[in-house]
Amino acid sequence: MSEGREYEDTSSADGKGSLSQQYGGLHARGWVDLLPSSWIPYVQLARLSPPVALFLIYFPHLFGTLHAAKAYDLSTPECLGLCSILMGGSFFFSNAAHAWNDIIDAPIDKQIARTRNRPIARGAITPEAAFIFTAAQAFGAALFLLLLPPTTAIATIPTIIGTIYYPWAKRHTYFPQVVLGFCLSWGVIVGNSSAGAQKPWADPAALCLVLALTFWTMIYDTIYAYQDISDDKRVGVKSLAILFQNRPKSLLWMLLLLMTITLISYGRLIDSSIAFYLVTVGGVSLSLGSMIMNVELKNQANCWWWFSCGFWFTAAAIATGLLLEYTLI
Question: Taking the model in full, what pTM does it have?
Answer without folding.
Answer: 0.91
